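The freezer alarm interrupted the setup, so I double-checked each line after restarting. Inputs confirmed:
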Amino acid sequence: MNGSERILKTLMDHGINESFGYPGGSIIPLFDAIYETGGKFKNILTRHEQAAAHAADAYARVKGTAGIAIATSGPGATNLITGIATAHLDSSPLIAFGGQVPVALLGNDAFQESDMMGITQPITKHNYQIRDPNKVGETITKSIKIATTGRPGPVYIEIPRDPQIGEVTKETPKNIQLPTYNPTMHGHPEQIKKAAKLILESSRPVIIAGGGVIISNASQELNQLVESTLTPVTTTLMGKGAFPENHPLCLGMLGMHGRKSANYAIIESDLIISLGCRFSDRITGNKDTFTNNAKLIHIDIDPAEIGKNIPVDLPIVGDLKCILKDLNMYIKAITDKHARTGKETGWSKKIKEINKLCNCNTDINTYPINPKKIIHELNTSIKDTDIITTGVGQHQMYAAHYLKRKYPRTFISSGGMGTMGFGFPAAIGAKIAKPGCEVYDIDGDGSFSMNIQELATLKEENIKVIPLIFENNYLGMVRQWLEIFYEKRYSGVNLGKSTDFTKIAEGYHLNGITTERSSEIAEALKQATKNPESTIITIKIEPESNILPMLPPDGSITEAFGGCITKKGHYFNI
Amino acid sequence: MNTQTHIIAMHVIDEPGVLTKISGLFTRRGFNIDTITVGKTETKGTSRITVSLHCNEKTIEQLEKQLNKMIDILKVTNVTDNSIVRELCIITINIKNETARTELINYTKIYPAKIVDMNHTSMTLEFTDQPENIEEFLKKIQQFGIKEMVRTGIIGINKNR
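Predicted 3D structure, all chains:
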């Protein structure tokens, strides 16, 4: 067995038998070993390494296990970078393999050599260079553990050409230890008891559910916490789907582009319970005014997140699922004595009422099409278990606001990094992870164009996903900023009207539908769903629609403007 | 928030690239290193990196947490307080005349500085002490004209409890 075969054997021993990758000189031995497995290990050939990384990242997010991307040295490896950085900021267990020039040539500026250990270091949870084929098994086992446990994150493995070919002479050790790596799982019982008390003593509590709830599979525990205390829940973009969005206490996304109901709850609350959320600037707006004198319980598996951006009153470090289980237990023990479980309070009633006011009408039949209408049709037609991926921009925020998701891991978006071009390859990764689900990519004409070459992957690998392109011929989000904050000085945002996505789809021998009428969207979706092959739906939308509410730059969440609340100025004068 | 000099000692796995990873973290997160030293430890295969930096309590807390996350770091110890802290300094000083020479030799009798080299025009001293004492000594001998100076950076160890 050579090093390459050991790579695949170790991955398959861990239940991983799919990858996304693109070959090249320094990684040929690994691709040769893939050939040798006769289909037991399958590589999806993407048309760009960036797409391979995004697909593997989304695969990991949907499945909750490691996703594998493979590239050659030099340009192949550097093309992975945007994908690795995206996985890093969204804590996704991507494992990226990069080839490298032979060990003897390292540092000599050989053909297609780049210092990937240096380049990937700031954007990975960890990276390894394997120089000895006997270390392959051990290194990959460690990498999988590092990538998937604790706060997950990408691991980059660089393997020069010779250890890929070199003979493996030793068995992989049975008991592989990582002495310096030991993420805290169980929260401190005293802290959790205090949290239970604080929650029950508070009169206006609110939960922020972040991506951590989804990563630790803690949705059920969160549900229990909400039902027993009737605490309203806001979610971050990464937390979308952690809590069912048809629940009357689900306020949707908070923050810079947050729903008014969500930001209102934060402003008015006396206790914020943050679950696996890192308080990025897109959540807090101006950090100094964010908590507005409310107490803050911050639960996170990464101790470095606690107190990093917002001062904390009660920190708990550990795995959310474990901590929420304990928290629910303590709350039950207390409430059993006082018998207040599940009782409506003035706060919960008020929140439900405001939340209803914020559920504005999305069934808008205008010409040109209002983007809300597309989301409306999706809400009507897709299954709760289907998967939505998104690009980055206005369409992403429309989806974040109006799309109702009930289950975790069914909404896949690039949050921290905000990577345009993520949605389409992510849809491919999601479909490979869950072939039984329909996968829709809500995308913009700008975002979609960034990885448009993956249409070839769809056709050749016979993968069915449905990209929905919100075509406004603008880079919409930047245009919105220029309109509102730069007096409509539209610099570098006009995409022109020369692109015909349906014709492009046809060029790849795929189906394309273009529509500009609200009444045709439902039918287009129906056709695309029915078709066993991918259909690319292009929807021409109102070119200058704005996604609101939004915050001015560096503004506090009380300064949010726009958006629909039916009684204007009824609850807060914004 | 008050700022002061903090000294952090890290036990790390002795492998290529570890120092880059650690110094990269400092740069990336905006922590400014004043001194950094690396050396062997009591355990084979591990090194000790000692870093001193001037910052406030919040920054040092965040730094320690970020360092603790690094897989190549075995242990992070704050050796700012209740510790033995030393730095070594080698100074070559110009000697203009005999009076200066005699005066300098007198300084080495009062301060724990050792003469390690000498010729007609210069004298080289070795001085090991707490960084603040080194500063004080340097101020005193500045008048002679320092030709060249090298400092190791700070190392520290916690006192026995």
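Quick read of the result. Chain A touches chain B through 18 residues (CB under 8 Å).
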